[in-house]
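Problem statement: downstream parser choked on a complex file, so we are re-checking the raw output for the MGD run. The parser issue turned out to be on our end (a line-ending mismatch), but while we're here, posting the original submission so the record is complete.
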Amino acid sequence: MAEASPSIERIPGYCSLCISRCGSIATVQDGRFVALDPDPSHPTGRALCAKGRAAPELVYDPRRLRYPLRRTRPTGDPDPGWERIGWDEALDLVAGRLAAIAAEGGPESVVVSVASPSTSATDDTTTWISRFMNAFGTPNLLGSMELCGWGRFLAPTYTYGAPVPGAFMPDLERAGCILYWGYNPNIARISHATATADALKRGARLIVVDPRKAGAAAKADLWLQVRPGTDAALALGIAGVMIERGWFDREFVRDWTNGPLLVREDDGRLLTEADLDGGGRGGGPARFVAWDAAAGRPVVYNPATGRYAGDPSLLPGTVRVATVAGEVECRSAFEIVAAGCRQYPPDVVASICGVEAAQVVDAARMLWESRPVAYYAWSGVEQHTNATQIARAIGQLYALTGSLDAPGGNVLFTPVPAPNVEGRELLPPGQRARALGVLERPLGPAKWGFVTTDDVYRAILEGTPYRVRGLVGFGANVILAHADSRRGREALAALDFYVHADLFMNPTAELADVVLPVASPFEREALKVGFEGSQDAASFVQLRRKVVDPPGEARSDAEIVFGLATRLGLGDHFWGGDIDAGNRSRLQASGLTLDDLRAHPEGIRVPLETRFRKYADERDGVPVGFSTPTRKVELYSQTLLDHGYPPAPEFEEPRVSPISRPDLAERYPLILTSAKHHLFCETQHRGLPSLRRKAMDPELEIHPAAAEARGIGQGDWVVLETPSGSVRARARFNDSLRPDVVVGQHGWWEPCPEVGAPGYDPYGPDGANLNLVIANDVVDPISGSVPHRAYVAQVRAAGDGGGLGG
Ligand SMILES: Nc1nc2c(c(=O)[nH]1)N[C@H]1C(S)=C(S)[C@@H](COP(=O)(O)OP(=O)(O)OC[C@H]3O[C@@H](n4cnc5c(=O)[nH]c(N)nc54)[C@H](O)[C@@H]3O)O[C@H]1N2
Ligand SMILES: Nc1nc2c(c(=O)[nH]1)N[C@H]1C(S)=C(S)[C@@H](COP(=O)(O)OP(=O)(O)OC[C@H]3O[C@@H](n4cnc5c(=O)[nH]c(N)nc54)[C@H](O)[C@@H]3O)O[C@H]1N2
Ligand code: SF4
Ligand SMILES: [Mo]
């Protein structure tokens, strides 16, 4: 008798474990998910990383949460006394508690935390989570914006009125020069790494700014080894060379930036038409003034029409302009910016940043001669106390290339038409202004509803500016991912009610009152309207199929959101709890239906074409320009000035460095930064045997000379100390580092018994939690960005050969 051949099914989809969202094919053999492979027909499907290939291990991990759990003993008790409960009981309990807290303290006293979609599959659900928050009425989203989103998405709105490079993605297919600044796609986003490799093959140049020669940096034509956190000085220096040598797109700067506008020397404000004529023409928004150098007279610029009444110039030097209050000395915004750059000539950059002066010039030349320039900047320049200035300085440098929204530059690819269903209109008026931190940092992420962990901890513990009493967590391992882990524990334990939805128990979830088991992305359907990285990707729509059933009673985040919403009486805003109906509304304008997508699990391409330089489009005879107060790229930001911040990009020494803190430098002479791990996402995945086997212990990269001077050998356990405490790691020599820089790994807590690997105490010196030794107290004044990537430190041999964790 012939043996039954195994049933094999290959299911197209995509890996949703990180931002790359790599197109993939899942193999299911006899009902069991056995392999995940790349799907080269998918726009992001050229390759998978080790984490994606380990997906079946994640799915079948014996430690997955299976049932809703309720705490029966007080938070802080070593035994939470978890009790299995049913879904109805769990959701009723959660809805009841949230409603009670909102009734007493207002909906803003409930914070929602979400694992960053860059490191998790919450991307499947962020639309619905936002809608839930808006309908519930809370403006407080805790989502790591201050760690890795501000510099890409929100800070650039002060320069470009748009997220450059977060949404205006590098057009790698056409770029002449690629600039990666504190970004390593080889580890962080495989689909970008493959596209970059293709671009290099066809001759594109690559410049990488990174303290480490790793990944992309090792392949670069020019690697600029910057001292952590001094990136703004480097950007100003490169821009200075470009300006001085005329290596910049003069037309773009004149026509599309606010460079020509005159700035009053007396108060730093933009000169207005009212200054000239006393406001005789009255009404309307302010009109500004530039200088027509040929005619030797002022010309008025009207932001409402985006036009000058004459020929503006990028005036060098100063000019005295007659106003109703007498003559006023003015400089063009561009001249102010150029003067700012002149403070950082290559030799000064060399002394601040440690980048050779000649390389500063080489970088300027390469950017100019190999343009169009496509760039991306990420966590290397986000986690700093001067993150806003870095983003502004790089944004200014990029404006000089004239490559924005040009072929081969940073382009907003045409999206699939889709309505925004985040329900912004549902948030009651006045609630946005109640976001935590908006008073202290009115231009920071809270303006958009993103709150920082420190603000949340303070609101819970001190009731400032009001008491936060409830937390709804979709993933987010806040305790390990953010600084001040002990304060975090204290805060989360002080909540009246905390519900956490996750695939696994983690040190943050352990503090919850109710824990909900979540289906992994391979166990749930999800709709993705548009992928990232190219026009082909942006045009791609896919309804990801479920590969296998979830373990136990685990459910998707979407089911949890819709279930909670209906129980809270918000069902009308959630299509009566029907997720398909919600997805249909997202597809409304796309010309696709859910049935089309179900019939084509491999995804469907909507025919779309890229339109470039959309800022030059005209509507009713008025150029679209940029969404800034002057309708131009704001090299000079009066908005920042009005709030007491530098209006033009500036370099500020990182606030917790050996230079800014000479009082700490002797004891802590090293600079601590960090980088992502190629085998793990953030604080996850250390329990997966195939991955952990390849990286058993937390490591600290250190220059061999720095190690030798401390009697540390390769692979030795070391103690990493900062003013905030100490933790352990194994020394890994890296001779490409500066001897005064060490690079740590965060996220170590999870054991992997299958390979005999220990777990680590998140709260003590025998553990390996890097964020235990970093503090939140000194932050970027504008955004609240944290000093994770430039912090004073010292390293010594552990001396006891051990570091077995806790
Ligand atoms: N494998 C893997 N992939 C991931 C993640 C993961 O944990 N693992 N996490 C995801 C998430 S949440 C994010 S935000 C992205 C992040 O993606 P990236 O930003 O690319 O990640 P990192 O490796 O942390 O940082 C990039 C580089 O910044 C450098 N760097 C450190 N300090 C500085 C500095 O002061 N200045 C400059 N210029 N560079 C510096 C580091 O050496 C590193 O090579 O990756 C996503 N993808
Ligand atoms: N020192 C230092 N600290 C850092 C960084 C650094 O570079 N250095 N990087 C920072 C960055 S960039 C970020 S984004 C943060 C990351 O911090 P987090 O956003 O907290 O991300 P993770 O640590 O990856 O934790 C993700 C959690 O979500 C769960 N999860 C995964 N997928 C899903 C899902 O689909 N639904 C639900 N409900 N849960 C899910 C996982 O099981 C895990 O418990 O850490 C930051 N911390
Ligand atoms: S890079 Fe790896 S983890 Fe991220 S989506 Fe691709 S395969 Fe998944
Ligand atoms: Mo991130």
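For whoever reads this later: The pocket of iron/sulfur cluster (ligand 3) is lined by residues 15, 17-18, 20-22, 48-49, 51-52, 190 (CB under 6 Å).
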